[in-house]
Amino acid sequence: MLHLVTNRKLIPDGNIFRVIEECVNAGIDSIILREKDLSYDELYNIAKEIKLIADKKSVPLIINGTLDVARDLKCHGFHTGFNCIKNKLPDFDGIIGVSIHSVEEAIQAQNLGANYIIAGHIFPTDCKKGLEPRGTDFIKKIKQNVEIPIICIGGINETNIKKVYESGSNGVAVMSSIMKSDNIYNTVHNLK
User: How many C-beta atoms lie closer than 10 Å to residue 89's C-beta?
Assistant: First the structure.
């Protein structure tokens, strides 16, 4: 499973709708809209347009961080960071994912009822410059301790994706390599 995590600031021409359309047409499995700097109204308006594009091919749209937008647009899912859940997942009529950075957080997210976790960062990435990647052993340790799907993120590309799946990941989430791509169709297909 290949999940797109958005960051419109990485898109060379700034056209997030073009990128989403190309990803949907290329067969992306879900879109996690992660535009943290936007107000409710700004995010709502962008998410509304993206949902129209995604719905054409039944691609789930998951909103990162802004529960009200996820609820108001009746999106497929809501995603949040582990530090935001405070020992209780929010009330949401859809799937809920949690970003984790340790095995303990993964276990707790599962125990609270998360539908999936995003674990990272696995390999070196510009998004986490200077921070030591956790590597594929991190995936193996999580897999031994949780039963919910593990989606891995961080520096994953076509040369190392096989190692991620061999370590027990159920899917990958990619940001930079798709957002910056000049051939999204090929990028998505090379990662699937």
Answer: 17
pTM of the model as a whole? 0.95
User: Residues near 102 by Cβ (< 8 Å), separated by ≥ 6?
Assistant: none
Instruction: Give the residue from 110, 99, 88 showing the smallest Cα distance to 5.
Output: 99
Give CA–CA dist 93/78, Å, rounded.
Answer: 9
Amino acid in position 35: E
CA distances in angstroms from 83 to 32, 109, 183, listed in the order given: 18, 11, 35
> How far is it, in rounded angstroms, from Cα 160 to Cα 72?
38
Q: CA 5 to CA 11: how far, in whole Å?
A: 12
Amino acid at 117: I
Q: Would you give the distance in Å from CA 160 to the centre of its chain?
A: 18
Convert the pLDDT of each residue in 167-191 to its tens digit.
999 999 999 999 999 999 999 999 9
The residues that bridge with 2 in the sheet, in sequence order, are 172
Tens of pLDDT, residue by residue over 48-64, are: 999 999 999 999 999 99
Instruction: Provide the token pair at 140.
Output: 């193996």
Distance CA 32, CA 42 (A): 16
Give the chain's mean pLDDT: 95
Strands of 82-135 (E only): list them: 95-100, 116-120
What is the set of domains in the chain, with CATH numbers? 2-191 (3.20.20.70)
